[in-house]
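Weekly structure sync, notes
Attendees: PL (lead), two postdocs, one rotation student
Agenda item 3: pending single-chain targets
PL asked that the sequence for the first pending target be pasted directly into the notes so everyone works from the same version. It is reproduced below exactly as submitted, 158 residues in total.
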Amino acid sequence: MTSVYDFTVTTINGGTQSLGDYRGEVLLVVNTATRCSFTPQLEGLESLQRAYHDQGFEVLGFPCNQFANQAPESDEEIGNFCRLSYGVDFPTFAKIDVNGKDADPLFVWLRQQKGGALGNAIKWNFTKFLIDRNGQVVARYAPTTKPENLENDIKALL
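Predicted structure, written out during the meeting:
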């Protein structure tokens, strides 16, 4: 795989979507959770989505239950929670693993492109990957990095 556009992912309602549909856009790919101390970041992520969507920016959320069982709900319940509790309108996909033998291929590739504090493993929920308009990973952010602190990096790519 040579870019994020080479991947197909499962939508929250069980369909499939090619990330090639986002070709030419700046993307922020995030592994999310519903019961994490960082869950309120969903509000900040949605604020970024609303502020920059018309300029070609998209947040892509991938729920993950690998860290302390912090996303135990079904895909449908996760989608409803994100929408009702935080006003999330950005695309949210089916729950995935981001580490280990069952890790989603997209996250295997993302981790290979930009390592983190634990080598290339994802440390916790709300790890963020910023993708440029060519489908390449340009930055990785720790779960503690608040969405509003990414704004300058996003604007630079837009």
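Discussion points:
- The beta strands are 8-10, 16-18, 26-32, 57-63, 128-131, 137-141.
- The helical segments are 41-52, 75-86, 105-113, 151-157.
Action: rotation student to compare against the earlier draft before next sync.
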